[in-house]
Amino acid sequence: MSLRLQARELACERDDRVLFKGLDVTLDAGEILCVEGPNGSGKTTLLKILSGQLGDYTGELHYRGEPLRRCRERFLANLLYLGHSAGVKAGLTALENLAWYQALAGDAFDEAACERALEEIGLAGFEDVPVGKLSAGQARRVALARLALGYRELWILDEPFTAIDKHGVAGLERRLLAHAERGGSVVITTHHALGDMAGIRRLALGEQGHHGEAA
Amino acid sequence: MSLRLQARELACERDDRVLFKGLDVTLDAGEILCVEGPNGSGKTTLLKILSGQLGDYTGELHYRGEPLRRCRERFLANLLYLGHSAGVKAGLTALENLAWYQALAGDAFDEAACERALEEIGLAGFEDVPVGKLSAGQARRVALARLALGYRELWILDEPFTAIDKHGVAGLERRLLAHAERGGSVVITTHHALGDMAGIRRLALGEQGHHGEAA
Amino acid sequence: MSTSDAPAPPPAGLWGAFTATLKRDVTLALRRRGDVLNPLVFYALVITLFPIGISPDPERLALIAPGLLWVAALLAALLSLDTLFRGDFEDGTLEQLLLAPQPLTALVMAKVSVHWLLTGLPLSLMAPLLGAMLALPPGSYMVLALSLALGSASLSLIGAIGAALTVGLARGGALLSLLILPLYIPVLIFGTGAVQAAAMGGAGAYLAILGALLALALMLAPLAIAVSLRISING
Amino acid sequence: MSTSDAPAPPPAGLWGAFTATLKRDVTLALRRRGDVLNPLVFYALVITLFPIGISPDPERLALIAPGLLWVAALLAALLSLDTLFRGDFEDGTLEQLLLAPQPLTALVMAKVSVHWLLTGLPLSLMAPLLGAMLALPPGSYMVLALSLALGSASLSLIGAIGAALTVGLARGGALLSLLILPLYIPVLIFGTGAVQAAAMGGAGAYLAILGALLALALMLAPLAIAVSLRISING
Amino acid sequence: MWAFIHKFGSPKWFYAISARLEPWCWALAALALGVGTLWGLAVAPADYQQGESFRIIYVHVPAALLAQSIFVAMALSGLVFMVWKIKVADMAATVMAPFGAMMTFAALFSGAVWGIPTWGTWWEWDARLTSMLILLFLYLGVIALRGAFARRDSGARAASLLALVGVINIPIIKYSVEWWYTLHQSATFTLTSRPAMPASMWLPLLIMLVGFYSFFTALTLARTRSEIVKREGDKRWVRALVDKEL
Ligand code: HEM
Ligand SMILES: Nc1ncnc2c1ncn2[C@@H]1O[C@H](COP(=O)(O)OP(=O)(O)OP(=O)(O)O)[C@@H](O)[C@H]1O
Ligand SMILES: Nc1ncnc2c1ncn2[C@@H]1O[C@H](COP(=O)(O)OP(=O)(O)OP(=O)(O)O)[C@@H](O)[C@H]1O
Ligand SMILES: [Mg+2]
Ligand SMILES: [Mg+2]
């Protein structure tokens, strides 16, 4: 029961290139799984499959022991996914964006909670600025504020550190560890070194299809 | 004459927030200038001003001693700017994208040169794949291949390491140093640590407007 | 500390998500003030183009007025459809909408409702004014507005299927019209039929059929839209 | 090693950049095979809507045919304009286009030419067929095609100004039509005038005026487009 | 039950079965088309009103009927593909669409050619003509939508969905167009109030119909088979098969 997410014999190919094959992934409560690999090795693809967004694979996916297809509703209620694109509307303010996410999760609107989340993520004072007028990193932080808004046990984060400054990265790392300690689980990809974090498991993709160095 | 880019008394405010004021920037041949600062401190804004894209500032800009407005054509012929968005068309292949940039620079199409540039940047074998089918990092590399394509003395790069894996970052750093050694100049922003590179100058923005830590 | 078994969200949550999405889309549209007026201005402009292009003779105009008013309204609604899901697709909020633990059909209905509220409804309110400019007989103004209100709701629903199917494609706009204009034809026929019949006082049957078409669209379209969105996001 | 003083690019370079941009846009359009056909299909569909909405009676249709054919072509051209710069804006290539060491007016002309080649020209070639379906007198087919070819070139040029002005705005589509439809009216008047006059054999003067309008647009529009793009990117 | 459906829909099984069916379909098509053409063009008497031009009926009517049937068949294949994920159904739908569009065009074209001697005009906004034109647009939409997707699977599902939505609408469109036509004006020419045909005219028509339908079946089988080879080219059984044939 405590085995949260389990993938067996996952295989995916794109345009006749095999990205991975026979991949087994298990994720338990309190675990952080860091998916690593060079550009184009299939990290984003794997994360989309694990979050049930891509049907284009073979293999089995289980959430809490049940096949994912059969408990989709419950799975989604416990999932927080952040992708390459931030998922915030440029025309709305940071606060309005969060309010919408809160409602989408089925919760009642709680302005204090939203403001607290924004403040925790370093956006105090920018609550009422339209996201389109924020810098790249600030806009990204609005999306990250969802991590501080309500509890979802499973986080799937695709390069969450993009455009975030050093302080921000350090803060986020602490946040991930805190989530794991609380019993949450995280799947993450990043090209930043996550070296100093204890107790994270690593999954390496695409050893064969290694890229040359970019110079 | 050798003072390539010079900004005097630059000031810019956005929505009544002063981003910087009385800023003096000088850039010489063979220099690398790294603009640093937390999210929202005005790095992108500064780079856009320095590359002549934003007219929304006070102060003076000189290129090789001449006011920028008066030698725009020559300035652009020697400038390579990479912004937050990659500037590659998803519908074209990597090779076609490069070919267009080559023509835009006024050079004749040289397929061998384009292929060499793609190979150097780690995209060998992906020359004829539409960019829309590449991963985030691979698409970014197509834009970066322009660095290896023909010589432009001034590079202005806004977070060029976004989505690039570790090997790629190391390669890019070497490329920057090589460019500087050859007499080129670079202005760069990045949240990656550029610590091990000798001889780069740093410019810190936005000490006052420091963000809280993102957690 | 882990919430060992999160329950499915309560029904109140669904209603909250529905209204929040509705409110979000209305806010976004109103914030770019021009946007709300755009379909209206387009409608008025197209209607004025025709007397210029065809003939300013009121008698001749009156003959073609019901058709013109309906076709132009249809085109105005069509033009605004392309952006229905596109903005959300591009900034990643559509992805998040599909990952919400709420039935997608309901959330999608919120978006379609906003489209109708901000396009179809104002168009039908404005149509009588333009009808007067085209020398439409005064007795048919009410029917014109009613038929447009009913018909444009069907148009929004049907059109949303096409918008959902083409949202991931780079230049969806023109493909979208190819997909949905053929499906619009019944609505167009009964709509113009109603206005033409109104002059003779027998528009009731047409309006009833428009209502029936709307009921059918309301039953089938939400599911089709939801499925289409999943297809588009997957590709 | 530094290239101490890079010379301004040679004129051959400008021509190369022009043709490369032309080729790039044509490649992009042809790669999505449907795209080239889309304005044509839209044109045919809109023309089909009118007899359905107005009346299938050939005599009545013949009266309004020149206006319908022109207004529908204008809408088809308008619809495809929205994407003229939008794609480039979104993926950052427009930014790079503005940073190219080439005169922006020339590069912009390459993009507008592609738009006309892939929209205006096919539309005017297809118009006679649709004219026949609307019972247009056979003598005016040639004039219809010619007037549309000339007129649509002006439309592409004028429309590109609007597209450039609105490219930075999220939902440019409808605002765009608002901005440029009024500018289209002279073209529309002389275009339909030519077709109507063709039945009586005196279309020459109208075609000459359309040609003059095109010459004017060719002179003024490129600069206006370039300036508009700079304004949009700056915001 | 599911196992059976999936076995039924497996490309390999389909490939084997259709290989046996195909020659029969081709033979029937050739026979019916041959007999029908000869009978219709040479043996059947000329129409007393329309003269020789009426012989277009032997192409026109089968093409028009087939065009409508193919859309239904395509939508059904789409449904099977969407619900049971049977790839063969989608392959069949893929190859049906262009042929259906061609038949629609053939009906339109033959009708237009026929219209010149009989009606004096090649186009008329008549109910049937209009709904046929709309059917052509529906076909074009399905084909264009499928082609617009980069991933084949997404394109397939999108096209199936559109075909399904379209097939629900076809009766509505047909019905409404007919109503529209009768409302606006009395028909100048009606297709239905023709003189009753003698048997010597409709028998060859029936034979032609059989010919067109079996031609369609044969063609669909053949092209689905080649589509299987194209899409499943890397599967072992296909390679073995290709090797054997070489
Ligand atoms: C572009 C022009 C035309 C189109 C699109 C067209 C379309 C059709 C269609 C769709 C049908 C099948 C109706 C059904 O579902 O049973 C049909 C049948 C037929 N058409 Fe045409 N038609 C055209 C012109 C003509 C002309 C000019 C004639 C001769 C005067 C003609 C004579 C017939 C006849 C005799 C039938 C068989 C009627 C029946 O079985 O009920 N058609 N046509
Ligand atoms: N279009 C705009 N209109 C108004 N204000 C803006 C606009 N773009 C950015 N700003 C403001 O200017 C400030 C600086 O933005 P800028 O993009 O230069 O930051 P940055 O240093 O590049 O940050 P990051 O590290 O997140 O990329 C931000 O606080 C933002 O609120
Ligand atoms: N839509 C697509 N269609 C076809 N192939 C694709 C598509 N998206 C990605 N691919 C291919 O799949 C491979 C893996 O892509 P993916 O985005 O999963 O890589 P990634 O590991 O996330 O890389 P990055 O570090 O650059 O984000 C790439 O080589 C790419 O060519
Ligand atoms: Mg990725
Ligand atoms: Mg920035």
TrEMBL record, chains A, B:
Transmembrane intervals: none
Keywords from the UniProt entry: ATP-binding, Cytochrome c-type biogenesis, Membrane, Nucleotide-binding, Translocase, Transport
Entries under InterPro entries matching the protein: AAA+_ATPase, ABC_transporter-like_ATP-bd, ABC_transporter-like_CS, ABC_transptr_haem_export_CcmA, P-loop_NTPase
Keyword Translocase listed: yes
SUPFAM superfamilies tied to this protein: P-loop containing nucleoside triphosphate hydrolases
Entry keyword annotation includes Transport: yes
ABC transporter domain segment(s): 5-214
Full protein name: Cytochrome c biogenesis heme-transporting ATPase CcmA
Lineage: Bacteria, Pseudomonadati, Pseudomonadota, Gammaproteobacteria, Oceanospirillales
Gene that specifies this protein: ccmA
UniProtKB/TrEMBL annotation, chains C, D:
Membrane topology label: Multi-pass membrane protein
Keyword Cell membrane: yes
Major subcellular site: membrane
InterPro entries membership: Cyt_c_biogenesis_CcmB, Cyt_c_CcmB_bac
Entry keyword annotation includes Transmembrane helix: yes
Pfam families reported in the protein's UniProt record: CcmB
Regions crossing the membrane: 36-55, 61-81, 116-136, 142-167, 174-199, 205-229
Subcellular location: Cell inner membrane
Keywords per UniProt: Cell inner membrane, Cell membrane, Cytochrome c-type biogenesis, Membrane, Transmembrane, Transmembrane helix, Transport
Its job: Required for the export of heme to the periplasm for the biogenesis of c-type cytochromes.
Family: Belongs to the CcmB/CycW/HelB family.
Annotated protein name in UniProt: Heme exporter protein B
Species this protein is from: Vreelandella malpeensis
From TrEMBL, chain E:
Membrane topology, from the record: Multi-pass membrane protein
Transmembrane portions of the chain: 21-44, 56-84, 96-117, 129-149, 161-181, 201-222
Compartments, as annotated in UniProt: Cell inner membrane; Membrane
Keywords attached to this entry: Cell inner membrane, Cell membrane, Cytochrome c-type biogenesis, Membrane, Transmembrane, Transmembrane helix, Transport
Major site of localization recorded for this protein: membrane
Residues covered by the Cytochrome c assembly protein domain: 20-184
Coiled coil: none
Matches recorded under PANTHER family: CYTOCHROME B_B6 PROTEIN-RELATED (PTHR30071:SF1), HEME EXPORTER PROTEIN C (PTHR30071)
Role description: Required for the export of heme to the periplasm for the biogenesis of c-type cytochromes.
Family according to the record: Belongs to the CcmC/CycZ/HelC family.
Name this polypeptide is given: Heme exporter protein C
Species of the source: Vreelandella malpeensis
Taxonomic lineage from the root: Bacteria, Pseudomonadati, Pseudomonadota, Gammaproteobacteria, Oceanospirillales
Gene: ccmC
